[in-house]
């Protein structure tokens, strides 16, 4: 039994997607660093809506 026709028509799935698989985690890491840096700037440091600000004394 051919799974979705892969045995009859060998279609490359991983080969054209490798740039997205490499850049995805890099972009997520950089967005995390930007968000973390934005939460610690002085105007938003003591804002009660800041999720990191509620644990500071």
Characterize the structure shown:
- This protein has 2 helices and no strands.
- The protein is mostly helical and 57 residues long.
- The chain has a domain at 26-56.
- The longest helix has 26 residues, at 14-39.
- The mean pLDDT is 78.
- The N and C termini lie far apart (64 Å).
- It has helices at residues 14-39, 42-45.
Residue share in β-strands: under 5%
Average per-residue pLDDT, rounded, comes to: 78
- What percentage of residues falls in helices of 4 or more residues? 40-55%
Structural class: mainly alpha
Largest sheet: none
Which residues sit in consecutive blocks of at least 5 with pLDDT less than 50? none
- Principal-axis shape equals rod-shaped
**Amino-to-carboxy terminus distance:** 64 Å
Helix-strand topology string = HH
Number of strands: 0
Count of individual helical segments: 2
> Taking Cα atoms only, what radius of gyration do you get, to the nearest Å?
22 Å
Q: Can you tag this structure with a few keywords?
A:
ATP_synth_F0_jsu, rod-shaped, proton-transporting ATP synthase activity, rotational mechanism, mainly alpha, ATPase, F0 complex, subunit J
In a nutshell, what does this entry contain?
The chain is mostly helical and 57 residues long. It has helices at residues 14-39, 42-45.
What topology does this entry show?
Layout: H1 14-39, H2 42-45
């Amino acid at each position: 039994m051919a799974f979705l026709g892969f045995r009859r028509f060998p279609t490359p799935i991983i080969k054209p997607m490798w740039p997205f698989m490499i850049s995805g985690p890099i972009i997520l890491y950089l967005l995390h660093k930007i968000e973390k840096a934005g939460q610690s700037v002085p105007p938003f440091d003591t804002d009660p809506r800041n999720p990191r600000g509620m644990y500071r004394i």
